[in-house]
Amino acid sequence: MTTKPKTRRAPAKSVAPDPIFAAITMYEDAVKEVSRLSKELNTLDTEGIKTHGIRPSEFIIWRNLWIAGNHIDFHHDRLLEEAGADLDKRAAVENEYRDAKARMVIAQAQCRAWDFRTGTDSLRKQYERAIHVEEMITTRLARITPTTLAGMRALMVHVHRALADGFLFDDDDWRAASLRTMIAALAKMSLQDAA
């Protein structure tokens, strides 16, 4: 009886895992946390409405646009850009901005007071922090370059799902940034394959 000599396989090439997989997982976990907190908050808000009425709105209207949070600063900057060098228009924008800021402070105070009365203040802060974390992870995800074709496919599927959900985007949106990142990654992979 003869036996075949054992052949040795070359050691497997150690390849670092594609960072995009961990980033997508972090994003999905963050979205789940926001969703969980949102459902919990909606339940408490519904209970609060029964005894304290509807929660005041965080939004104000400035030049026919509903604005909340830091969007007021983006709107301010855009209006200043539109005003250009016209000092009268710029002064009008600044006056409107101060008025809008004052109205926003009042709206936010009314919301915080309602949250305190209904006992939702702590949960709402958790929810707002979770949204902030999700936004940071999303921004990071859009700029992580996949290092493998499998990673590229995973990012493409992820962006496609977001687009299929009906999200439209502009150049500053994370989906647009992700598409630019994918294009750059494909170009880099193509150069590596050619070498």
Report on the architecture of this protein.
There is one protein chain. 71% of the residues lie in helices and 3% in strands. With 195 residues, the protein is mainly alpha-helical. The relative contact order is 0.13. The protein has a two-stranded antiparallel sheet with strand order 1-2. The longest helix has 34 residues. A hairpin with a 2-residue loop joins strand 1 and strand 2. The two termini are 48 Å apart. The protein is flat, with a radius of gyration of 25 Å. Helix 1 runs parallel beside helix 5.
Summary keywords:
mainly alpha, single chain, 195 residues, 2 strands, flat, two-stranded antiparallel sheet
Summary, kept brief:
The chain is mainly alpha-helical and 195 residues long.
Question: What pattern of helices and strands is seen along the backbone?
Answer: HEEHHHHH
Major β-sheet, in short?
2 strands, antiparallel
Biggest sheet strand order reads: 1-2
Give the CA-based shape. Answer: flat
Contiguous helical run count: 6
Work out the strand percent.
under 5%
**Strand runs, count:** 2
Structural class: mainly alpha
Spatial extent as radius of gyration: 25 Å
Report mean pLDDT, rounded to a whole number: 85
| Percentage of residues assigned to helices | over 70%
Residue ranges: pLDDT <50 for 5 or more in a row? none
Instruction: Determine the N-to-C terminus distance.
Output: 48 Å
